[in-house]
């Protein structure tokens, strides 16, 4: 089959869960003689906004849509005529039988309709709550507290302090960089990245970072547009029950939403017998951001009173540099060590070097790949008792749960483990689904859909 993947971002520049999973599936399906291509967005300030760049990903076709986030309204963040034109060009050139959407963020909600009009079958993996939550699908009210569900005015209030796109200062800078890159051949992307901390300090607290004031009517308009997009999808895949139930409650048809766990390259991870001893080695792997709850782990570390353990934090800090700096200051005098970002190839080694993984996220999460990776390594997990984390971690069998945001409760678990490391050896994390098993399932669904339209 000819299958086009669509993702908001993509490796190697981006290494978060959804895009890594999409790349993993592409590799596996490509090995099975299917013809694969990917269409994704990328911020490239030295390129003109809306440009379509052709390349390759491990021998497969890659189409990169340049989106420099020059939004002036909420609608610009989910309806993008330039993305639609670029996608239509890709449909004509690649001519897929099936389009598998992994995310529409930074692209356009109209893409599933375009794919269906082209004659392709359409499926979508639900990696988060973005269909109903424009705050990057995190369901965190104003970025601080778990949201119980969307309401038009509530969403408008939440979004009014959220930076969906470039500020006025950034738009000017992107325009200059694009002109220099397009007309003079100057690539300023590296300089822009180095200047990011300076720019963020300049803009801290300034009004232009509050990009829009959002009304309830604008939120309703977004909901209608996203509902139309979903009507073009033949089959949804949800890696967790919490995302399925939430989005079915929002309006997705239950008979078209299939629970399908994330598949993992399990052969990359060696499941080794573990015999933890003092000091217990605690780890965190993920983005250094507030919604991931890294500060909760740091706060717990300050309550450990000399307990025999170490805490290694691996992750990219450049997305939120001020937050990362505040963590480093708060961690002074604790057993916390900041180890920097891991290359995906280094993750198995990092998991083998710790005794327990902590996932302290403050949002529901979906089905965190880092938990699946830990389980594949035979590593137990301590996680917040929310959403997909609560589904995966069984207390007393594969790890422990604590109330989200409760540093004292997390510290209590860590103190118990530090005093009795043998507790960890008694746990038995489950073996996760393999990427091969997931690809087997997709081939059946893809084939049934494609054969149905070809009859």
Which structural class do the helices and strands define?
alpha/beta
Shape: globular
Low-confidence blocks of residues:
197-210
Instruction: Report the end-to-end length measured between terminal Cα atoms.
Output: 15 Å
Tell me, what is the CATH class of the largest domain?
Alpha Beta
Instruction: Enumerate how many helices there are, as a single number.
Output: 16
The total strand number stands at 16
Taking strands numbered 1, 2, ... along the chain, how are they ordered across the largest sheet? 3-4-2-1-5-6-9-10
CATH-defined topology of the largest domain: Rossmann fold
Mean of all residue-level pLDDT scores: 87
Radius of gyration: 22 Å
Helix content: 25-40%
Q: DSSP strand (E) fraction? A: 15-25%
- The second-level CATH architecture of the largest domain is 3-Layer(aba) Sandwich
- Characterize the main sheet: 8 strands, mixed
Any overview of this molecule?
The protein is α/β, with parallel strands linked by helices and 455 residues long. Strands 3-4-2-1-5-6-9-10 form an eight-stranded mixed β-sheet, sandwiched between helices. Strands 13-12-11-14-15-16 form a six-stranded parallel β-sheet, sandwiched between helices. Strands 7-8 form a two-stranded antiparallel sheet.
């Amino acid at each position: 089959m000819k299958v086009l993947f669509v993702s908001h971002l993509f490796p190697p520049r981006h290494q978060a869960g959804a895009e890594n999973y999409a790349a993993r599936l592409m590799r596996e399906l490509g090995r099975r003689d299917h013809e694969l291509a990917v269409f994704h967005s990328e911020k490239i300030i030295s390129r003109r906004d809306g440009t379509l760049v052709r390349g390759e990903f491990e021998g497969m076709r890659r189409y990169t849509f340049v989106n420099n986030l020059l939004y002036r309204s909420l609608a610009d963040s989910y309806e993008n005529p330039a993305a639609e034109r670029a996608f239509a060009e890709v449909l004509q050139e690649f001519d897929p039988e099936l389009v598998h959407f992994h995310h529409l963020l930074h692209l356009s909600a109209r893409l599933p309709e375009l794919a269906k009009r082209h004659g392709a079958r359409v499926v979508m993996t639900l990696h988060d709550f973005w269909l109903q939550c424009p705050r990057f699908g995190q369901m965190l009210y104003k970025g601080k507290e778990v949201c119980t569900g969307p309401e038009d005015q509530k969403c408008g209030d939440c979004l009014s302090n959220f930076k969906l796109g470039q500020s006025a200062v950034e738009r000017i800078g992107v325009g200059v960089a694009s002109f220099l890159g397009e007309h003079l051949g100057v690539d300023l992307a590296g300089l822009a990245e180095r200047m990011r901390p300076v720019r963020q300090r300049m803009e801290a607290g300034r009004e232009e970072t509050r990009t829009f004031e959002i009304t309830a009517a604008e939120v309703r308009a977004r909901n209608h547009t996203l509902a139309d997009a979903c009507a073009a999808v033949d089959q949804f895949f949800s890696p967790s029950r919490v995302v399925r139930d939430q989005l079915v409650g929002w309006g997705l048809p239950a008979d078209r939403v299939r629970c399908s766990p994330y598949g993992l390259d399990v052969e990359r991870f060696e499941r080794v017998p573990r015999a933890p001893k003092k000091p217990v080695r605690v780890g965190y792997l993920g983005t250094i951001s507030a919604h991931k709850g890294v500060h909760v782990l740091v706060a717990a570390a300050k309550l450990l009173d000399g307990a025999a353990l170490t805490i290694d934090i691996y992750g990219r800090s450049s997305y939120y540099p001020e937050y990362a700096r505040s963590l480093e200051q708060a961690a002074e005098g604790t057993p916390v060590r900041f180890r920097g970002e891991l290359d995906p190839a280094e993750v198995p080694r990092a998991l083998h070097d710790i005794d327990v993984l902590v996932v302290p996220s403050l949002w529901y999460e979906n089905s965190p790949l880092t938990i699946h990776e830990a389980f594949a390594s035979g590593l137990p997990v301590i996680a917040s008792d929310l959403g997909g984390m609560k589904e995966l971690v069984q207390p007393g069998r594969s790890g422990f749960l604590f109330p989200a945001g409760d540093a004292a409760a997390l510290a209590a678990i860590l103190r118990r483990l530090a005093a009795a490391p043998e507790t960890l050896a008694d746990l038995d994390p489950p073996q996760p689904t393999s990427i091969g098993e997931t690809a087997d399932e997709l081939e059946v669904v893809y084939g049934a859909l494609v054969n149905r339209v070809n009859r």
